[in-house]
Amino acid sequence: MITFLVTFLVALTVCLGLTLVVRNRALAWGWVDQANSSRKVHIRPIPRLGGVAIVAGFFAPLCALFLVDSGVGLLFQSYKELLWGLFGGGVVIALLGLYDDLKGANARLKFAVQFAVALGLYQLGFRVELIANPFGPEFSLGVLSLPFTVLWVVGVINAINLIDGLDGLAGGVAFFGVSTNFILSLVRGDVVMCLLMAALAGAILGFLVFNFNPASIFMGDTGSMFLGFVLAAVSLKTSTKSGTAVAMLVPIMALGLPIMDTLIAMVRRTLLGRPMFSADKEHIHHRLMSRMVLSHRSAVLVLYGVCVLFTLTALGLNFANSAQSALLLIGMGIVIVVLMRKLGYLDLRRASAVGQTRRKNIQLHSLVKDVTRASRRADSFQELWGVLRPLAEVLNAARLELRFQRRWNHGLTEGVVFETERPAGAAMPLDMRIAMKDDDVQVGWLRLSWKDGRAEVNRDEELALELVADAVAERAHQLMALEDAEPGRVVSLGR
After folding, report:
1. What does the alpha-carbon distance between residue 96 and residue 222 come to, in Å, rounded to a whole number?
2. I want to staple 15 with a disulfide (CB 3.0 to 4.6 A). Which of 161, 203, 402, 434 is the partner?
3. What distances in angstroms separate CA 321 from CA 245, 275, 318, 409, one per listed residue?
4. Would the pLDDT of 76 be above 70?
């Protein structure tokens, strides 16, 4: 136990110190998450590279074991496949997350790297070959072992990433998953797994000191994907060593909250015709705040409580017989159904409108693709306006305004405004203005006004307009740079 405590304290200390350094450097160098989207819950720029400290805090005490001539160190070094999988895969996933935080990585690159790492883990022996069934005999996966293992690894990585929406939430969820694995490993006498979980627990708690609401730093994709990877890999190892009748159900239950949130998001987006990888504000933590009127911190604490319930259920499954496991699963299923009803996911009154919403969103998604593609090909600001002008009719807006602006070093500003109006109702206007920024440079605004009696902007339309604004901002910034270099090729902005 002393070795586990030392490992925990070393990881905690390294992560505490490095998080402070990373936070200050990120602020100085402008590596921050801007609050320029309706999808954001914070209202000021926050450094986003805290995951670097989590990765360093996790690896620091483990690397020290290679330098210490002790029985524990020699035992740790003897697990070559485990070390290759966690160290090699962890570094690759952390670098992918770091690249995404700094430069931005598209879904294709992320999944390509994640699937490659998952395949590597499978080759090293991280795999699921049996699916236990508390209601009957276990099921051998056979040839399905490879796809199931790969989907588990990729799924958990992205589940932790998706739930990273509130201060301290992803770290707290991961901590409860780590605690479950630590207890199970301790009961089985698995020293190496206990060391790994002690190191990860210390790194997470060191980071949560700065990340719990109000957060002064975010873990970013570097941290969330790394945590998901380690939890997925460790869960595979702990499940294969389990002698219970519900081996794989234990890690699934331990990570129940992020897995449930991800599955709900996939079903929701499929039914409503939204792109599978689009962002929205319909996750469990968002609905807790909007439907149950909870504060940011209260929502996180409630979800911590849900994680405790999942953790206790996972531990119960590990020690229960088949009949007791079945009762636990039924009881947890009832809790999940009640929670989903409270959050409005099972509201049958909205079922009739799903088909109509789906058709509208598919049409809207197609329009956004066409508009963003055309925006990036525009050769002038007039062409950009020509691309956007049809949006007024499609979105039934009474007024559409596109404003470009450039601010010079001496304080003067020049710009141009394009606008169109159309008869679309006589109610009190509802306005929406989206700031257009590219590389943190303000290039203008996109503004719409509705007079059709709506009380709020449709959420799908709002997200679509943000994507359009991003594309227009990117091209407008390029045109401004081109105007400086070759003034004759771009129509100049007039005052």
Report:
1. 7
2. 203
3. 7, 42, 8, 72
4. yes
Domain closes at, from 203, 226, 254: 254
pLDDT at 159: 93
Are 138 and 131 a contacting pair, CB within 8 Å? yes
| pLDDT at residue 43 greater than cutoff 70 | no
Instruction: Confirm or deny that 221 is annotated as ligand binding.
Output: yes
Q: For the segment 225-239, what is each residue's pLDDT rounded down to a tens digit?
A: 999 999 999 988 876
Q: Clarify whether residues 249 and 388 are in a common domain.
A: no
Q: Which of 254, 280, 314 is the last residue of a domain?
A: 254
- Rounded to the nearest integer, the mean pLDDT of the chain is 85
Three-state SS for 370?
Answer: helix
CA distance 462 to 470: 12
To the nearest 5 percent, what fractions of the chain are helix, strand and coil?
Answer: 65, 10, 25
pLDDT above 50: residue 494: no
Token pair of 351, please?
A: 């079922």
Q: Is 409 labelled as part of a ligand binding site?
A: no
356 located within any domain: no
Does any domain span residue 282?
A: no
At 398, which CATH number?
A: 3.30.450.40
In contact, 239 and 67? CB cutoff 8 Å: no
Report if residue 319 sits inside a domain.
no
Q: Quote the tokens at residue 103.
A: 């430069």
pLDDT band of 158, cuts 50, 70, 90: very high
If one compares 32 and 452, the residue with the highest pLDDT of the two is 452
**DSSP sequence for 386-428:** HHHTTHHHHTT-SEEEEEEEEE-TTS-EEEEEEEEE-----S-
Closest CA to 25 of 13, 34, 14, 17: 17
Within this chain, do residues 239 and 386 fall inside the same structural domain, yes or no?
Answer: no
d(CA 201, CA 175): 6
pLDDT band at 243 (very low <50, low <70, confident <90, very high): very low
pLDDT bracket for residue 454 (50, 70, 90): confident
Phi (first) and psi of residue 305, to 5 degrees: -60, -40
Residue 12 counted as domain residue: yes
Is the bond preceding 214 in cis, omega lying within 30 degrees of 0?
Answer: yes
Same domain, 68 and 201: yes
Q: Rounded to whole angstroms, how far apart are CA atoms 297 and 289?
A: 10
Total number of domains in the chain: 2
Report the C-alpha gap between 188 and 184 in whole angstroms: 6
Domain interval for residue 241: 2-254
